Amino acid sequence: MEKLNFEFDASTDGQTIQSQVMVGVVGSGDLEVLIEPDVALIRIQVTTSVDGMRSVWGALMHRLFSSGNLPAMSIELNDFGATPGVVRLRIEQALEELGLTHY
To answer: Which of the residues bear the PTM O-(phosphoribosyl dephospho-coenzyme A)serine (predicted)?
Structure first.
């Protein structure tokens, strides 16, 4: 098991999230995404069963969260061997449930 942490700047337009969301499940080849409000940054904690993939996770998180268009939030990702495509799908699913479709 490996734990990875990433931080990105959040939008400064005053947009916030008011609720929590959970999508996915931890199971063979899948991913659980938990999102909660935060006050300043986009904070991401990844717990993965696949060691040595920091650069892959970092590149994917950078692609999704470096635009500065999303509000502050804490994101917990619990991975059991999901592919990058599944990771992106689950994160986008969680953001959509929060009403965040333009990012």
So the answer is: 28
How does DSSP assign 47-68, residue by residue?
EESSTT-HHHHHHHHHHHHTTS
> Residue 28: its pLDDT value, please?
67
Contact indicator for 95, 103 with CB cutoff of 8 Å? yes
3-class DSSP assignment, residue 88? helix
pLDDT per residue over 8-59, tens digit each?
Answer: 999 988 788 999 999 998 776 789 999 999 989 999 999 999 999 999 999 9
Tokens of 20: 């929590």
pTM, rounded to two decimals = 0.91
User: Taking a C-beta distance cutoff of 8 angstroms, is the pair 3, 54 a contact?
Assistant: no
Q: Does the pLDDT value for residue 103 go beyond 70?
A: no
In whole angstroms, what is the distance from residue 80 CA to residue 28 CA?
6
Show me where the domains of the chain are located.
2-97
